[in-house]
Amino acid sequence: MSEETNVAQEGAQKESFIARASGLKGKDYLAYALGDTGCCLVFGLVTTLLQRYYTDVLLLHPLYIMLMFVVARVWDAINDPIMGRICDTVKTSRWGRYRPWFLYGSIPLVISAILMFIKWPGFGSEPGSVGVSAYAAVTYILFGMCYTVIQIPYGSLASVVTLDEKERSKLSVWRSVGAALGSMPVMIIGMVAFKAAQGTPGEEGYVPGGVNYTILIIGVVVMSVVALAMLLIAFFGNKERVKPMPVVQEKGATVKVFKKLFKSKSMVAVSLASMLLLAGQMFIQSFYSYLINFYFEKGGIWTMLPTVLTYLPMAFLMFFTPKLVKKFGKKEVSGIGMVVAAVANLAMFFLLFMGKGMGALITFMVFCLISGIGLNFFVLQVWAMAADAIDEIEVKTGSRDDGTAYAFFMFFRKLGQAISAIAVGATLLAMGYYESATGGFVFNDGQLRLMFILSTLIPAAMFGVMAVILLFVYPLSKKRVAALQEEKEEHLRSLAEGGNDVVEDEVPVEITETPFEDEQATGQDSEKTDEE
Length: 532
Description:
Layout: H1 3-15, H2 17-20, H3 26-56, H4 62-89, H5 100-116, H6 130-161, H7 165-193, H8 213-237, H9 253-263, H10 265-295, H11 301-311, H12 314-328, H13 330-349, H14 358-379, H15 382-397, H16 402-431, H17 445-473, H18 478-497, H19 519-531
Helix pairs in contact: 3-5, 3-6, 3-7, 3-8, 3-10, 4-6, 4-16, 5-6, 5-8, 6-15, 6-16, 7-8, 7-11, 7-12, 7-15, 10-11, 10-15, 10-16, 10-17, 11-14, 12-13, 13-14, 13-17, 15-18, 16-17
């Protein structure tokens, strides 16, 4: 190859802004993933253990817990957009616009997580205590605020770490894997801390499973400390490759940004799908603990096995999903996956006629695994799909407000938490789950059947609606995303011609090989580039 050709190719590469703000390596993916590992180490405490801790240790009424969760999500409706606007408008530090929040928010986050689970003297001695109820509400809302301080900037980080949509797809996979790894340890705590029911439901002396508080609080403290370490590693390991646009303060700017977001069919669709995703995941993680203890009368590892089986498929799907996405598209792969998840959960309902024996329990677990396979296709791509929607808004409107856009997206996920809280609380109330003087609970066969019916049909309905949204509402198909990349490049070029610095100068020009990429395919792509 001649020297003139090399010079020409080098010049073409330098002109490609997407290439200049890309080129992620394995360490970059790992550092980004550890951000969600740290967050999920403490968030998993909320999704998996907190509901049971509130009812069985603090003896809070399910109705109060449900209302507390809903009120917290209403506050998020105010809190999340505020954090998003802060990220987009504050002066950029030497570490960037979004990365510094890992440093600012990590210590408050882990302290608030521990405070939620501290059982002070007298807590849990009287059902419905006003003091205990107030403490639970304050610490839970405090945790939510601290979580927002990190999560909104963290999500926005994906838009400035790389501009290449294939790398963003892999970032989404790595983030989801990091989140799954962060969610696993809490399952071990649940297996050990949650006890099996004793006796026969409906009989006098029947005692449901309780919680070993000593094991619980030790696990909470250990996970919080590890979460702090992960967040600090994520701070030092990530890099913002896309330069922030100059902040222009004008009256009504926030309202204008949100109008653009609500007008974006892509952003609204992926936000609604993500909302139902989180609602379904949290419902399963919170409610299946009750189902296994009381319906199947099992404790220990059985209590958390449904959640383990839901996440387990990610261990092998993480290697194949990028290839499937490259061939078929994010929208297409995720939509079909949700069809599989919905059908699997609907099939669980018919296990009601098998009774409560070991055969029914094992079959139930098999369907949990199948559901997890379908579910994880979307779990692995949801963050990349949100980034694509943000790119589309920027290309169409000319403005980039990553923090506010991600706050919009996260608000819908917070609504998903509220939906889960309402579903779990309403189901417990419908079953007659109530506190006795000793803190125990009583069920009859009819209530247990209702528990099983609702625990299968509610997720099936949520996942079915998600499939419809992804396949028929979300517009960013494989073809549209490819066109969006070209439009993004032209948009960046016009910004540069207008005198704006759009990427960091020291970022490597050449896109390097990235994880989960087939070596042969990578080689073919390189040869094709050379020929061109």
